[in-house]
Amino acid sequence: MAKAGLLSLLCPLLAVAFLVHCHASEKKVHIVYMGERRQGDSSPASTHHSMLAGIMGSSESAKKSLVYSYGRSFNGFAARLSDEEVEKLSDMEGVVSVFPNRILKLHTTRSWDFVGFSKGKLGAPLEGNVVIGLLDTGIWPESDSFNDEGMSAPPAKWKGKCVGANFTCNNKIIGARWYNSEDLFDTTDLPSPRDSEGHGTHTSSTAAGREVQGASYFGLAEGVARGGVPNAGIAMYKVCWSFGCSTADTLAAYDDAIADGVDIISVSLGFDLTPYMEDPIAIGSFHAMKKGILTSNSAGNSGPNPYSVSNYAPWTLTVAASTIDRKFVAQVVLGNGQVLIGLSINNFDLDGTAYPLIWGGDAANFSAGASPAIAGFCSPGALNSYKVERKIVLCDAMVAGSQILIANGVGVIMSNSFYSVDFAFSFPLPAAVISNEDRVKVLNYIRATENPIATILVAQGWKDVMAASVVSFSSRGPNPVTPDILKPDITAPGVDILAAWSPLAHPSIDRKDTRRVNFNIISGTSMSCPHASAAAAYVKAGHPNWSPAAIKSALMTTATIMEPGKHVDLEFSYGSGQINPEHALNPGLVYDASEADYINFLCKQGYNTTTLRMITGSNSSVCKSTTPGRAWDLNYPSFALAVEDGQPIQGVFTRTVTNVGNSSSTYTVSMSTPFSVSITVEPPVLAFSKIGEMKTFTVKLFGPKIAQQPIMSGAITWKDGNGHEVRSPVVVYNILPGRKYGIPTSSMTDQKTDKFEGPSMYHKTGILGRN
């Protein structure tokens, strides 16, 4: 068959799976971002239609092209555009950026107790005033986690609604919308806010689910499941489907969520290395911040690689994932009596029966062209079912499990060289994941034994004495775009979290698993994010007038300090530490920041006055210079100094703290200093006489020239002697010459200088969280 003919047959399949367009001339969805909606602009949709009609030549073509008109909370639109039309729109006055509709990926009974938050002390009335908006895969409204018994009506400020067939809101789920700009639906996708993937139901119940007695995953982790703020309202904005989550839909959801009146936005998805004003989460969260709404988002699941952190805008809370003091252990018992420790959420009971054991490489499906090396990895179709039938299979890599079942195997033992063995998956058959060292023991046993046998025991919840520690998959800093802003900001439980689940979704790593559950145990920064979102909502409930920056500061400066000896990358893995919601209610001092502070920050990122006036909708936004500069004067609750190889340690940071503790109080600074770094703080004492009073101080870091120096860390802590300890981490690290303003790529430097005058970058999307 000719190549063109083959492509014509394959392309429709690729289009569904990967959003590939089958014709080069076919128009593709792009987002046209135009900044803040100007006061007096009564009809943004009319403006958007006129712009499209102007470049397309007809009103009818414009109408067919328009996908979304963003105008409730900011200004912009999504439309199907040709390359030529993209170019024309990019040059139009009033347009900040034009970028393609890309696909983002989705990045509990014990976790809240583990962080010392068994039950909030604020009570239902205050919690009930807070609404958490989640951008996710939807929600299953019939779950017990979302019953509204005893809950009052939504707060008077609420303007949201339920949109979609066969979906009813209540006093718990007070809003639900769905978005699908590409009009693509898999057979499992439901065109409604209803969840068929499970992810959104899980994150929603983690953040704000009601108490459910006797929740478990097939009897594992049985206990009381609840969210962090069980009396808060939930608003679901379904932007994610079986194929992922599009940028156009994400911005549409932000446009609605801000206008609907949510208080906290929880986003467990993201891009890596994307310019701030081409990142829908950075754009949406900026406009949310302007309206007093904090966005909590996941750091990503691309760890432990450095520079892998997602969602690094300073106006958002970026959340890493750490373990809790429970891990699921599925022991492997060999016929020679050896007992090996495996990790797996294994609910299958083999009743102690031993089965024949075989290495996948000894069961190669030669008729399918498999070799022992390929079969050793248990690749799909590589196993000989005659040899595997009724046996437990040893695989040299992680597998979903369906290939073992297809070959009539009864169980699987796997090794995992990609991640550390520090979190568990669930599988559709008896399974255990062991270390590479133990894999060698199993293989040696098979080789030395004429009839090797083994069994896999049902998983048990063991106490993890190493908790809390940041899990291997959690994305790490440094911040790839702005090295002077430490990211992630904080860590929260994200490993083996039990929460509600959609009964339409497969419960294990294998999408072919036909079992169904009401609660599931999964891991990811997608799971840690709603923990932090709930903590932010809790602080918001106690302090409804605090700004997003103040809430974020309270969470960061009161975080539980992580043990540095467990983490080679220190604060690049956990930020300020692990969330401590109760302590965050009374932080003593906060590092506040306003829109003007972030505008000054963006000026130093290379954005100019013209662009920033469009973004803010105000002519008062002025950049004195568009020359890239250091971010040392942004009032951030942590300190990061990136030093180019061979240069001396030298940085001056200005910070202002606001008193939110005792009206009359005096704070004295204490410092823990990393090796070879000197820190001075002036003044060393801050005296306050009233609530709301602000004091400014300067931090100077200096030291010798350094090169190839891994992260060094210390801290600055303000103490008042009455229980308030306001702690900020200080990190110093080396970067390559020329990278003090981030990792340069062509994505932003190729833009016209009337839009932007500075470096940034674009990178791949990352999976941000589910099994």
UniProtKB/TrEMBL annotation:
Catalytic machinery residues: 136, 199, 526
GO cellular component, one term: extracellular region
The keyword Hydrolase belongs to this UniProt entry's keyword annotation: yes
Subcellular localization: Secreted
Range of residues in the leader sequence: 1-24
Domain Subtilisin-like protease fibronectin type-III as annotated: residue spans: 633-732
Gene Ontology molecular function: serine-type endopeptidase activity
Principal cellular location given in the protein's record: secreted
SUPFAM superfamilies named in the record: Subtilisin-like
GO term, biological process aspect, one: response to symbiotic bacterium
Domain Inhibitor I9 as annotated: residue spans: 29-107
Keyword annotations: Hydrolase, Protease, Secreted, Serine protease, Signal
Domain of life the protein comes from: Eukaryota
Protein family (similarity comment): Belongs to the peptidase S8 family.
Protein name (record): Cucumisin
Gene source species: Salix udensis
Organism ancestry: Eukaryota, Viridiplantae, Streptophyta, Embryophyta, Tracheophyta
